[in-house]
Amino acid sequence: MDNFGIQEALAELGLKDINEGTSTGSHHFSNGPLIESYSPVDGKLIGKVKTTTQEDYEKVMETAKAAFKEWRVKPAPVRGEIVRQFGEKLREKKEALGKLVSYEMGKSYQEGLGEVQEMIDICDFAVGLSRQLHGLTMHSERPGHRMYEQYHPLGVVGIISAFNFPVAVWAWNTALAWICGDVCVWKPSEKTPMCGVACQNIAAEVFAENNLPEGICNLINGDYTVGEMMTKDTRVPLVSATGSTRMGKIVAQEVAARLGNSLLELGGNNAIIVTPDADIKMTVIGAVFGAVGTAGQRCTSTRRLIIHDSIYDQVKDAIVKAYEQLRIGNPLDENNHVGPLIDTDAVAMYNAALEKVVAEGGNIVVEGGVLSGEGYESGCYVKPAIAEANNSFEIVQHETFAPVLYLLKYSGDVMNALDIQNGVAQGLSSAIMTNNLREAEAFLSVAGSDCGIANVNIGTSGAEIGGAFGGEKETGGGRESGSDAWKVYMRRQTNTINYTTDLPLAQGIKFDL
Ligand code: NAD
């Protein structure tokens, strides 16, 4: 395995000697039982990380609250400068961190590098934004009065993230939260704890170099019970949680019960509509990358292809042919297209989905199966599968986090395809492949896609950080990353200032003494 340079990458990230679960940074507060992280790539132990106990958590929270007092009074562009340095550090460590992401999570090395690039991109975005946290000025109805609004930081932002983007989701949140003046406490997925420690080490270096308290950036480790410490904690005004809809429904209720705010980024059930005017070559590339990239473990992975009946056979044949070319294997080997699933539980869910689609009357057109033998020792490698199905099947209505693609047929107008596309509980990403302006505009119109992301002649996955990212319905409604997503990390205050010697009341109310 080591010919891919994993040991060197671990050393560069300060993870070489953490087999006893120790490391630098706020992580030193953790004293709980060890989590062992095994790579889905080769089944080997990568390292062990100590979990956070309730007592440890209290220390983290005290550190974070103390750091907030210092951080919030730094001018936003000064905070931006720290984020700029963090982005620079990420550039230096891009290969090492990309490799760790690939090895611990199982996505291809290219996608691992892409994930780190997203972190760098959001840092660049945040640096510029640190000079643009604009409020509005309004005209007061009272003479000699000035009215405006300003944004202040919230305090401690809790971040709970999923295994499939083990580093980027944290950066989307922290880079913005930091320039907004917040401090962060991050609970990474218990399936990718080494990525969490690696990021903490990188950030800790930057804060130490600037004589700033590391409590601006905190790491807690463990499963949902550690996440719950934050969701129930009134000291955490915002919990940003990325993961399954099942998790989001619990987190939303916990946080709402104490009237906190939550930012939810949950599951998707993303479709590409393929109309008679589609460019078939582009459709095949977009659909295959969308369905098998990250082994179907992206929240934006393409799950459903909704194809017009007039071109159905042609598209189906082209996609099946493309699947025959796929090479499945070690994701660090750049010759492979598809790596492993995260663990054997995910493999069991993949198998169950394939059984279910057949039981519901679906027709398998590309056989799935679990791979075994040399190179597949982890038991996590599966064949991307395709089934012809019906949108009403229960299994099609659910997100299966694996490379299973459903082919669905529509006839007549593009609005019929939209009914199918929107006819699921989730609302994350959607796409249409067409060169017909009327179809494209109908798809984007008020009566079109009901998703947070709607693309024309691009697949469903691979969003850029410049736009607000997130989805509707059971995807949770949250928005992260670009556009004005920063506003979620701040509290808005309306200020009215009277610079006269009179005290006129609003709405002309008279109150003479
Ligand atoms: P998951 O829901 O099992 O876990 C996600 C995180 O939530 C983990 O850190 C976990 O420990 C924590 N958690 C679980 N229950 C909790 C609770 N009750 N309280 C507090 N924390 C809790 O998800 P996963 O398997 O890691 O990730 C896959 C899912 O994430 C998919 O559904 C995918 O679509 C979704 N996802 C969504 C986005 C998005 O931006 N919309 C991005 C990435 C992943």
Dominant shape = globular
Q: Strand portion, in percent?
A: 15-25%
Which ligands does the model contain, each kind named once? Answer: nicotinamide-adenine-dinucleotide
State the helix count: 15
Spatial order of strands in the largest sheet: 12-13-14-11-10-16-17
- Kindly state the mean pLDDT as a whole number? 96
**In terms of structural class, how would the helical and strand content be classed?**
alpha/beta
Q: Helicity range of the residues?
A: 25-40%
**Tally of strands:** 21
Main beta sheet: strand number and arrangement?
A: 7 strands, mixed
Which spans have pLDDT < 50 for at least 5 consecutive residues? Answer: none
Distance between the termini: 85 Å
Gyration radius, to the nearest Å?
24 Å
Write the layout of secondary structure elements.
Elements: H1 6-12, E1 34-38, E2 45-50, H2 54-71, H3 76-92, H4 94-105, H5 109-129, E3 137-138, E4 145-153, E5 156-160, H6 168-179, E6 183-187, H7 193-209, E7 217-219, H8 224-231, E8 238-242, H9 245-257, E9 261-265, E10 270-274, H10 280-292, E11 302-308, H11 312-324, H12 344-359, E12 363-366, E13 385-388, H13 394-397, E14 404-410, H14 414-422, E15 426-427, E16 429-433, H15 437-444, E17 453-456, E18 468-469, E19 472-473, E20 480-481, E21 490-498
Parallel strand pairs: 5-6, 5-8, 6-7, 8-9, 10-11, 10-16, 11-14, 13-14, 16-17
Antiparallel strand pairs: 1-2, 3-4, 4-21, 12-13, 15-19, 18-20
Residues 160-165, 187, 189-190, 223-224, 227-228, 231, 242-244, 247, 250-251, 265-268, 299, 399, 401, 428, 471, 475 line the site of nicotinamide-adenine-dinucleotide.
